[in-house]
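re: that complex we talked abt at group meeting.

here r the seqs, copy pasted straight from the sheet so there may be weird spacing, ignore it
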Amino acid sequence: MRKAVVLLSGGLDSATVLALAIREGYACHALSIDYGQRHKVELEAAKRVARALGALEQKTVSIDLAVFGGSALTDTNIAVPTSGVQKGGIPVTYVPARNTIMLALALGWAEVLQADDVFFGANAVDYSGYPDCRPEYVRAFERMANLATKAAVEGRRFTLHTPIIDLSKAEIIALGVKLGVDYGLTVSCYQADREGRACGRCDACRLRREGFQAANLPDLTRYAGRG
Amino acid sequence: MRKAVVLLSGGLDSATVLALAIREGYACHALSIDYGQRHKVELEAAKRVARALGALEQKTVSIDLAVFGGSALTDTNIAVPTSGVQKGGIPVTYVPARNTIMLALALGWAEVLQADDVFFGANAVDYSGYPDCRPEYVRAFERMANLATKAAVEGRRFTLHTPIIDLSKAEIIALGVKLGVDYGLTVSCYQADREGRACGRCDACRLRREGFQAANLPDLTRYAGRG
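got the structure back, here u go
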């Protein structure tokens, strides 16, 4: 059985990717990163999702990106926007180099496990404002990784899989439902409360809700202040 | 004044690189990484070196790579080799994806600071066994970084400087002495004791001592068990 490291945030996209990797027959090691995000409750969701979908194990690595500041997701002095998804430009919820840091950690674990595959739920459609979700970035990371490791020097080839990069949120949801993902276990909201209930107003909430509507599927998200 | 992030381990190579970046006129923000290394005392050396050479500030980010295991530097069940530098192959002191992880963190801080330059003390001569010290790796990381960030999307160009990559240890030492680096403040040993005294037998100690000998310069390293 081929091993893979799957980056698992606890949100909707990465849960779908984990289900896909398992369906493709990989023995999956799920990696979650505590990077000082305000929505730390998503890490609890990651543990639940890993268990429910059948990952072999799940690890959480802590790294305090709040030391650097610069993002609404790690700096409580910068508010999470709630007035609607911005058209054009990069939102303040962007965390500098976050995906590069998370992929570097996944690469490190993959090397220790002697896994040649990493799965990553980047999506270029809904989040086109994030530079490190673009296909050209993904290919450049893969190329760098193939020069970075002992495995590469020994002639093994590393592959970075981004199976949902071109799917709309509705397509991701439809796919996940078909694969048996229980989206009620996932948390997308950037400012979910301690119980994992969503605000309903941040970009992540809006994109998620619109996804369920467009997929014509019931949205099991729990919202704060609605019982 | 142009800002730069300088990766500073507390060892000899990165101290020399910091001195070079300051001499080139950069306002230097020194970044040290506590990755669960046994020779944590090098982080104290990093603070001393940053102060002595005139970095604007120094930050230490913690990330527990020991969670993954797989290296003599993070796993106390794997002994640090002390019988001489291995010819060919990758030594067990190699930490999977360590440089990729440290460079990703430097990239993140650079983006927050709006710095377009990162300095990194990779050296391809003495440590030819480490895949992530090779020039082709460095160029691939730089290329990836130029697709990863908000700064890149806005048209700014990121440069990864590796000024000592082609120098021998003796050349690095001769350069640093000329720039006024006090190598007595640095710690290279993979298993230095709590006071920062070196074992004298690990690869890092051997390469360092041979470097001072070849440069015909006094070695101020403090060794354990020799007063």
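couple things i noticed - The longest strand of chain A covers residues 27-34. The interface with chain B takes residues 59, 61-65, 67-70, 90, 94-101, 103-105, 107-109, 111-112, 131-132, 134, 136-137, 140-141, 143-145, 147-150, 152-153 of chain A (CB under 8 Å).
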